[in-house]
Amino acid sequence: MAQKIPILSLTFEELTLQLKTQFGKGDYHAAAIMREIFLHGQSNVSHAREFIRSGNLACQIMDALEILTLPMVQQEQDDGVIKWTSRLPDGHCIESVIIPMTYHHTLCISSQVGCRMGCRFCQTGQMGFIRHLTTEEIVAQVYTAIFQQNIPIRNIVFMGMGEPLDNFDPVIKAIHVLTDPRGFDFPKKYITLSTAGHVPGIQKLSASDLKSIHLAISINAPNDTLRDQLMPINRKFPLSSLQTALADYPLKSKGILFIEYVLIKDVNDSNEHADQLANFVAPLRVRINVIPYNARPGISYKPPSSETLNRFCHRLIERKLYVRKRASKGRRVMAACGQLGSEAGAGI
Ligand code: SAH
Ligand code: SF4
Asked: N or C: lower Cβ tally within 10 Å for the chain?
């Protein structure tokens, strides 16, 4: 029997090679398959003009192709936000979220089951690390959103469960699959990867051909003492090393880094914290997204009041920084940042 071809995990070059080995065909048919499956959501390619005179070949190829589908085990909606839980082939579950924006939709995807970074304020961090996702499982979340949820997606953000740079190779390969012009054709500028500050990963990304995707860095604490407590990754990669890696990041001429700052009542919300944050970003070209902490059951942290949020942002604006308050949609269904990874969503 022909070897199965896991199409969601293949680049154009790899698919071409597989077709050559198994069927003696090449890039002409590979391009047709990618277009039909990734762009048009077809599960059969026999109607495509490239196969019209070779129905047998189309059937054989369709038998060999495998489009990973992740059964949806739960789905919730709030504020137009759709959060769904998918079951992976080994029984573990992950969550993905579609967020409606004014003119388009953003899809938030997971890169790991759980996360080993252990950030104190984050639901995913508290569930611990279970395993990395494969490229196929990452791309399958996008395929599901577009062709099963039937939502046209413009932006993809790696802000779901997991630390994407801790799963570097599968994540990078997924971005190659998603941005290939012959397939999904997502422009790199509509993809954002968010990291807790994985310095070697940032350096590897700087050296890759994907540096034109957006990079978001979750700072959340503007001095090492507090960051060591809130985000254990800081003990390995302290703020000074993170700042150097970011200053060296090869931004395009109008490119900026996104700095994410989760504002937690009485923890990181003073004027002094704002000043320290402003000092940290001073050598960098950034936009700061201030995100009010999303409450989680069993954790004593609290969201800031709207006065505190405004005061904190204003203090940064006074330092001539470009600041955005980011509304967290989907709180009721635990679909907002840092709320992914509920017990129901994490178990086998
Ligand atoms: N691991 C990556 C991406 C996933 S977390 C990272 O940390 O950047 C996505 C975002 O959710 C991060 O900016 C993180 O700081 C934020 N976040 C985590 N817990 C949160 C919470 N309880 N409330 C609001 N944002 C939270
Ligand atoms: Fe992991 Fe990001 Fe959550 Fe930290 S904030 S535990 S890095 S998912």
From this structure: N
Whether the model pTM is above 0.90: yes
**pLDDT cut 70: percent of the chain above it:** 93
Ligand 2 pocket test: pick from 124, 159, 268 the residue with the most ligand atoms within 8 Å of its Cβ.
Answer: 124
- DSSP helix/strand/coil, 312: helix
- Find the 28 Cα to ligand 2 centroid distance in Å: 42
DSSP character for 293?
Answer: P
The CATH architecture that domain 72-346 belongs to is Alpha-Beta Barrel (3.20)
With a 6 Å cutoff on the Cβ, whether 195 touches ligand 1 is yes
**Integer Cα distance of 173 and 157 in angstroms:** 15
Contact 110 CB / ligand 1 (< 6 Å): no
Each domain of the chain, given as residue ranges in start order, spans: 5-66, 72-346
Model confidence band, residue 342 (pLDDT cutoffs 50, 70, 90): low
- In sign, the C-alpha dihedral spanning 237, 286, 106, 343 is positive
Burial of 59 per CB tally in 10 Å (0-12, 13-18, 19+): middle
With 80 as the cut, is the pLDDT of residue 195 above it? Answer: yes
Is residue 209 pLDDT above 90, yes or no?
yes
Is residue 98 within 8 Å of 72, Cβ to Cβ? Answer: no
CA of 300 to the centre of ligand 2 (A): 18
Check 108, 122, 313, 337 and give the catalytic one: 337
Per-residue pLDDT, averaged over 153-157, amounts to 96
- The closest-lying atom of ligand 2 relative to the alpha carbon of residue 166 is 7
- CB-CB contact of 113 with 90 (8 Å): no
The mean per-residue pLDDT over the stretch 40-56 comes to 90
